[in-house]
Write a structure and sequence with these properties.
The protein has about 850 residues and is of the alpha+beta class. Helix content is about 35%, strand content about 20%. The protein is built from 27 helices and 31 strands. The chain has a five-stranded antiparallel sheet, with no helix packed on it. Strands 2-29-28-27 form a four-stranded antiparallel sheet, with helices on one face. Helix 16 packs parallel to helix 18, helix 17 runs parallel beside helix 19 and helix 26 packs across helix 27. The longest helix is centred in the last third of the chain and has 42 residues. One of its GO terms (cellular component) is late endosome membrane. One of its GO terms (biological process) is macroautophagy. Keywords: Autophagy, Cytoplasm, Cytoplasmic vesicle, Endosome, Golgi apparatus, Lysosome, Membrane, Metal-binding, Protein transport, Transport, Zinc, Zinc-finger.
């Protein structure tokens, strides 16, 4: 902020206005003289002094013209809208109205001070050349048809007129009593707004008047502000009243004394005079004028901003010494004091960015600059971005700083390289690595290699990530391969480095070396490498290793379709690992097993739940695979045919008996006995094994007399031993059962012999009343069952079918079914 603007340095609220002194010629004028009034035009300024001079100034404060009007104070200067005519009045009664380019006009000396003068806004264009002056009277001057000046008294008798503001056809003026408005078109006075605080001297605390538009007048007097709107009266209400009337839209009190007012959109700019003895202000701020922006409300106002201004010699000034003028075309506000003139203007986007940078709000500043890059003049988006990056680096937020580089540095490769070297200097190459350019625009290969070497020293995982993410053409591939190889000499089993080396070999089209590493690591990307570069000829001796990869079976089956032996090995290993993964190929595997690996066919048929049995049976029958055919027949439910094949083609009684035992079917045993009855070796086998499944008598009765049976005696002895063993087992089981039953009976008896506690907390399960009566002196009967349910005797239903035997109603109901207990109790 400028030296004359006092605000709290750590304030988080951005100021609304910026200030600068009007210097150049003004500085020289005010060294020897003092400003008494000033009027603002779009193109120039007119300054009056206490020594009776009027200066025309450009916007920068340079003097363009000087008029010696009087030897005493200039009270008022008025310009018409065109800026071609000026009206001047002074404390010694002089009034001059003349053209700035002609000097012709009205020149008059009065015998009393003239405080104010106001030209008709269209004075230059008007034929009547009207203007008004204010002293003790409000006088209207106009030229008649003879080109002579005619004077009319519009108002008098209410003290000195201190302010006049002319807008369109309305003249507003202030005197000791209040504010009046005169309609020049109808020649009617339409309002009288009384002064609120009559105790203040009007010469010390003059009225401030300001037209916001052609019908809205803002009145400030003392500490009071009123916003008045001139409205057209309804013709039906006219009678003898003026055609217009004034409605006060807003009226409120302020904290300090008003020295000037100006509109700013729907808000007000107010210049306040602060008295030295005001308790509300700190000592440091006393007597400095304040420029506030306020939002008027119907009966109060809201402060938007407030600035205390250290104008020169503010300690010597009174309320009447300050004035506030504004330029209608743009938001420029001039604070006039005797020895200083300050210009306030709305802050633009550059000022907004300045403030954000001052408060170190770099991200917001960058965003504001990007949005308004066409409108900002003093700032550059990239420079703001660089300042933001520097700030983040100083703060230690290296990742955010690196991320911002993408946005800020854009396509400027020189800036990118500078930033990379800076991040290297502070040891933060890792932070910037993931944001480096890697598209059409790229840095020198040495930059990328420097970062890769840095990662390789400290972070193998990060190095691997960069190799995967960065296109290989960014750096010298062979140099990086050599660097990785050197590191692997120190750590030859590091899987991260090996995988990364394989990726580098792949990019360099050295697929055999990449494949060797992938297979050694059992890496999932081996499939992609084999398939993409047709490396199947390189893996015939390594096909089993592929079982360690979790990839799509379909790809391998399609690739190995022309190599059935390899396909069988692959599918067999896959089946061993997961019976379901290659289920859609189980039908094909039947033929492959039959052709290349019969020993594993039967285990495959046993374990697979997805191979078609009919197809398998057909293949096995064609190739006369008896064991596999027997298994398939039994699986399909044709057990008799399977048993027949075992007995006729295999002639293996033990296998036939084992098969019958597995099926546990009486008809199968009958078939087996019938087939074996004329074959002594079969009878021997049956006698040795049948005892535990079928009654041996059935077999013995059917043996023909005189048939020679090998080892018959041993077989019969074994049958008797098996029978005795069964009898012993039954007797042992019976003893155990009796002992267990007796033990449990004793336990139940002990449990039922225990006492049951009955107290006032127990209730009758029928009537739900307390089981014990309140009067224990009276006789009462309670029935307690072993199941712990309790009833009043009178609440129990009558005895059941067995006289004298009573059952628990609840437990009986549970055994009989839902609702039966309720029915029982109702009986």
């Amino acid at each position: 902020a400028d030296c004359f603007l006092h605000q709290e340095e750590d304030s988080e609220e951005e100021p609304k206005l910026k200030y600068e002194r009007l210097s150049n010629g003004v500085t020289e004028i005010l060294q020897n003289d003092a400003a008494s009034c000033m009027t603002v035009h779009d193109k120039f300024l007119a300054l009056g002094t206490h020594f009776g001079k009027v200066f025309l100034l450009d916007i920068q404060g340079n003097v363009t013209q000087k008029f010696e009007i009087s030897s005493v104070k200039i009270n008022q200067i008025s310009l018409d809208e065109s800026g071609e005519h000026v009206g001047i009045c002074s404390e010694d009664g002089k009034v001059q109205v003349f053209g700035l380019y002609t000097r012709e006009g009205f020149h008059e000396n009065f015998d009393c001070p003239v405080k104010v003068v106001a030209l008709h806004p269209q004075f230059t264009r008007s034929n009547y050349k009207q203007f008004v002056t204010g002293g003790n009277k409000l006088l209207l001057y106009e030229r008649n048809w003879l080109n002579r000046w005619k004077t009319s008294v519009l108002h008098e008798g209410e003290g000195t007129i201190t302010n006049i503001q002319w807008r369109a056809n309305l003249i507003a003026w202030a005197n000791n009593v209040g504010v009046k408005i005169y309609d020049i078109s109808t020649k009617q006075r339409i309002t009288n707004v009384l002064r609120d605080n009559v105790s203040l001297r009007p010469d010390m605390y003059p009225c401030s008047l300001c037209w916001k538009d052609n019908t809205t007048l803002i009145v400030g007097w003392g500490t009071s502000i009123k916003i008045c709107v001139v409205k057209e009266r309804n013709p039906t209400e006219m009678r003898d009243l003026p055609s217009r009337y004034v409605e006060i839209m807003s009226a409120f009190e302020t904290e300090f004394f008003i020295s000037g007012l100006a509109p700013l959109a729907d808000q007000l700019v107010t210049l306040f005079f602060v008295k030295e003895n005001s308790d509300q202000m700190d000592e440091e701020f006393r007597a400095r004028p304040r420029l506030d922006i306020i939002q008027p409300l119907p009966e109060s106002c809201e402060e938007i901003s407030s600035d205390a201004l250290t104008v020169r010699y503010f300690q010597d000034n009174e309320c009447r010494d300050y004035r506030l003028e504004h330029a209608e075309g743009e938001s420029l506000f001039y604070i006039i004091s005797p020895k200083d003139i300050v210009v306030a203007k709305e802050r633009d986007q550059d000022d907004h960015i300045d403030w954000l940078l001052e408060k170190k709000k770099y991200e917001e500043a960058l965003m504001a600059a990007e949005i308004s890059f066409k409108n900002i003049k003093r700032h550059d988006v990239q420079k703001i971005g660089m300042a933001y990056i520097n700030h983040l680096v100083e703060k230690g937020d290296y990742d955010s700083a690196a991320r911002k580089c993408q946005k800020v540095l854009g396509k400027n490769m020189e800036l990118w390289e500078n930033e990379v070297y800076r991040f290297k200097t502070i040891g933060q190459l890792k932070a910037i690595s993931q944001y480096l350019p890697r598209g059409d625009l790229r840095l020198r290969p040495a930059i990328y290699e420097m970062i890769l070497h840095e990662f390789l020293k400290t972070d193998y995982e990060g190095f691997a990530t960069l190799i995967r993410e960065w296109p290989g053409e960014l750096y010298n591939n062979m140099a990086i391969v050599q660097a990785v190889t050197d590191h692997l000499k120190r750590d030859p089993t590091n899987s991260t480095l090996l995988t990364t080396l394989a990726e580098l070999y792949t990019y360099d089209q050295r697929y055999d070396r990449a494949l060797e590493i992938y297979l050694r690591l059992r890496h999932k990307d081996v499939y992609q490498l084999i398939h993409k570069h047709n490396l199947f000829s390189s893996i015939e001796d390594k096909i089993v290793l592929l079982m360690d990869f979790d990839k799509e079976v379909k790809i391998m089956v399609e690739e190995l379709a022309d190599r059935p032996e390899l396909l069988h090995v692959y599918l067999h290993k896959l089946f061993k690992r997961d019976h379901h993964k290659g289920q859609k190929y189980h039908e094909r595997q039947i033929g492959l097993y039959a052709e290349y690996d019969r020993p594993n066919l039967l285990p495959f048929l046993r374990d697979s739940t997805h191979c078609p049995l009919e197809k398998a049976l057909e293949i096995c029958q064609q190739r006369n695979f008896v064991e596999e055919t027997v298994f398939l027949l039994s699986r399909m439910g044709n057990c008799r045919r399977a048993l027949q094949m075992i007995m006729e083609e295999l002639e293996d009684v033990d296998k036939a008996i084992e098969f019958a035992k597995e099926q546990d079917d009486a008809e199968l045993w009958e078939d087996l006995i019938s087939y074996s009855i004329d074959k002594p070796p079969f009878i021997t086998g049956l006698l040795n094994n049948i005892g535990t499944h079928v009654d041996p008598i059935l077999l013995i009765h059917r043996i023909k007399e005189g048939m020679e049976i090998p080892n018959l005696r041993d077989s019969l002895v074994k049958i008797l031993q098996d029978y005795n063993l069964q009898i012993l087992l039954r007797e042992g089981c019976k003893k155990i059962l009796v002992a267990d039953s007796l033990s449990l009976l004793q336990k139940m008896h002990r449990t039922q012999m225990r006492g049951v506690r009955v107290d006032e907390e127990n209730i009758c399960e029928s009537c739900h009343a307390t089981i014990l009566p309140s009067d224990m002196a009276k006789p009462f009967s309670v029935v307690v069952f072993h199941c712990r349910h309790m009833f009043h005797k009178e609440c129990l239903p009558s005895s059941g079918t067995i006289p004298g035997v009573q059952f628990c109603n609840i437990c009986s109901a549970k055994r009989r079914g839902p609702g039966s207990g309720i029915l029982e109790m109702k009986k």
